[in-house]
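Section 3.1: Structural characterization of target chains.
Under the original work plan, the team committed to producing a structural model for every single-chain target entering the pipeline before any wet-lab resources were allocated. The record below documents one such target. The sequence was received from the expression subgroup and is listed exactly as submitted; it comprises 208 residues.
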Amino acid sequence: MAPTTIIGIAGGSGSGKTSVTNKIMNNLEGHSVALIEQDYYYKDQSHLTFEERLKTNYDHPFAFDNDLLIQNLRDLCAGREVEVPTYDYTNHTRSKKTIAFQPKDVIIVEGIFALENEELRNMMDVKIYVDTDADLRILRRLLRDTRERGRTMDSVIDQYLSVVRPMHNQFIEPTKKFADIIIPEGGSNKVAIDIMTTKIQALVQKKD
């Protein structure tokens, strides 16, 4: 089995990470590609009361079980199948359901803190940061949370101002300096996505 190519895609909430990821995956025809979302790895909180779980700051690096993510990536690179956790957002803890992942040519790790952890970063062959203006990011988050998650506009704005924005400035924005390439404006930047796809294809072919 050829060595696995690991791609990290980071950026703030609403930056367009998912659009960039999907377009890169669609462009990698002929290769087996897996997407691992960092959100799968929110920490298990079953030892806490429900009221305590409600206080979790999901926009802080400590909310993620990076040790498990790193171990899963190592196993996949070694050719072993892994069981990836999932998160129950209703009960604010890890679900009993897991997702079976097979080793692939390319593994994309996508998440707001994909470039924050040094050990995780060092496993990546390509590091991407999706950079989008704050006004666009909050508008996208507002639309998503009110339409898809049943949130009120006031609650989304309050969370953004009290938690999301300060956490972005403290922990996410600084990871931009670790990126091999910064993609402005997310999925609409076709030129940058095409360049990254070509680079990833060349890396995979070189490893083959």
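The helical segments are 17-27, 50-53, 66-77, 118-122, 134-148, 153-172, 190-207.
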